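#random but structural
TW: two for the price of one
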Amino acid sequence: MIELLFFDMPVKHRVPEVLNDKCRHFFEARWPDESPLEINAYKLKILTGLGQGTCLKLMRDEFYVPNEKVMSCLCEVFHLQPGDFLYHELALSSSEKLLPNEKPLFTNPVL
């Protein structure tokens, strides 16, 4: 039986990582006296105007996929593209781990 692995690839986001690496200067400009600077959901809410619950999900839940409004807001405020913070992760079980030079059998669906 052939299984398509495409359906086992969850979309994840890396918003906290991107905010720390690429967008830190936006937070430093707003909170210049804070040392060390902590980037958290409250500060994300202040800079973006997004709801507190949405900001908490973005900072804590990597499986939360932001909707179009949230992605648009992040892109406009921080000068990003959705590809900067969204990605697919191949969900393989521990018995199906790939070797470093191997590629997954099915990476794109056949339409």
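TW: number two ↓
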Amino acid sequence: MTEFYGSIMSEYAHDCKKHKQLRRELSEQFDKKLPEIIRNLAETSSFISKDSEEFTSLLKEAIETYSQSHWRSVIALIGVAGESFTNQMYERIGDFTSNTGVKMERDDLFGKNRNVNEKIKIAALKFCNGIDDAIYKKLLKIKKLRDNCIHPQKKEHEWHNEARESLNSFIEITNWNSQKMYNNIKPKNIEIMAL
């Protein structure tokens, strides 16, 4: 069977006879791959989405990529989706008020969004009650899986289990987010100790 890539596709698309051959061969490839696609999709959890959120479109792309067994691509996409989710939630952190009544802004405590690394943003979200402990652990796990995938320690690795774990963890985060009603995250009071 012929594998089609790059400019050869253009040549086949414009020649009627070749177009029919291309269509037949692509259909055969799809038919052979269909059981694998169905099996892979069965491994994913269902999710509730808010289509307006950037990380939702990344999640949908990751699910499609997962169906095609592109494990490292899934992990990378979910890593980007996790970062997008974290950034969006971090922007919702409101100002703090200490137990002495002193107002403090998020940027003064944690730094401006673009200058704060992802682990600190995740920790800030947990500290401010923006996410619970389970979501906190899932976001850190997704980041770790992404980092391990992008900078692998092992040369030969399948990545299927990690892709499934990463994808399903982010689906759980998306479902949690869809059920949570919030505007700004209201941080808990910060106790300031007198010196």
